[in-house]
Specification:
Keywords: Repeat, TPR repeat. With 285 residues, the chain is mainly alpha-helical. Helix content is 67%, strand content 2%.
Length: 285
């Protein structure tokens, strides 16, 4: 019962989704700087697992086992899921005092620090987890995503490669490495990684959006359109999926359908500029 910080993060996967796969810059009927990005791996944690009832039962466990580091780790995880970051940090601190080599607790604490915006401390904790257990793929993936978000793509690529060399079954390793390939305009490699992520997590919308964007960059609108439609079917609440679909309609000259899809994206995220610009462009037409 570890927080399994990073492994759970890739998924609605049940109640968690990646945020912000996007088309970087859309000009009239083209795609400039074609790239998907992710603002964060985890925009929310399953709060059901951090329910008052669950935490209450964990309080009882700790009262009966006050020297058990795993008990504090599990309760810290529940606090994290409930958004009670300070309480989570306290529990992980106790767990690590009781067992300084508890690498899962370091990784779990790193996730909470990341959610608090303390990337430096999160990277330090992921690095400590890796130092204790160099085979722990979740820590490489968590640290790699922080490096990627900071623009340190070489370090991020090294971490994702390491997780993949460890035969990880975590789709995020391939998805995030695909984002780096995409940022470097290596779209064939990006498509391969997004496809692997899809094979590992077929119910996730985000790798379909990512792969579709690379298909657009290679001029393959038909496969891109299939991927964007699949992404919308899997999760119709992601604005980028609708904006991506709209772009293909726009490429095909179907301004009415493009405007409708852009409008849906704007409804979901009024601040999403590619959708706002696309809607203005297609409505004018």
């Amino acid at each position: 019962m570890t927080y399994s910080s990073e492994r759970a993060a890739y998924g609605k996967f049940p109640s968690v989704r990646y945020a912000g796969l996007l088309i970087a810059s859309i000009s009239a009927l083209g795609l400039a700087g074609c790239q998907s990005t992710s603002t964060t791996d985890m925009t929310g944690i399953d709060k059901a697992q951090g329910s008052t009832e669950n935490i209450s039962s964990l309080n009882d466990v700790i009262r009966n086992n006050p020297k058990d580091p795993e008990a504090y780790n599990v309760r810290g995880s529940a606090y994290g899921r409930a958004g009670k970051n300070n309480d989570a940090i306290k529990d992980f601190n106790v767990a690590l005092q009781l067992n300084p080599n508890f690498y899962q607790a370091y990784s779990n604490r790193a996730l909470v620090y990341r959610n608090m915006g303390n990337s430096a401390q999160a990277i330090a904790d992921y690095s400590r987890a890796i130092q204790i257990n160099p085979q722990y793929d979740a820590a490489y993936i968590g640290r790699g995503n922080l490096y990627r978000q900071a623009g340190q793509l070489d370090q991020a690529m090294n971490d994702f490669n390491q997780a993949i060399q460890l035969s990880t079954t975590d789709a995020r390793a391939y998805h995030n490495r695909g984002l780096i390939y995409q940022a470097r305009n290596q779209h064939k490699q990006a498509i391969e990684d997004f496809s692997t992520a899809i094979s590992l997590q077929p119910d996730a919308a985000e790798p379909y959006n990512g792969r579709g964007i690379s298909y657009v960059a290679l001029g393959d609108d038909d496969n891109a359109f299939d991927d964007f439609n699949t992404a919308i079917k899997l999760d119709g609440t992601i604005a980028e999926g609708w904006a991506n679909q709209a772009l293909i309609y726009e490429h095909r000259g179907d301004k009415a359908r493009a405007a409708k899809s852009y409008a849906r994206a704007v409804q979901l995220d009024p601040k999403y500029k590619p959708a706002v610009d696309g809607l203005a462009r297609t409505r004018k037409s």
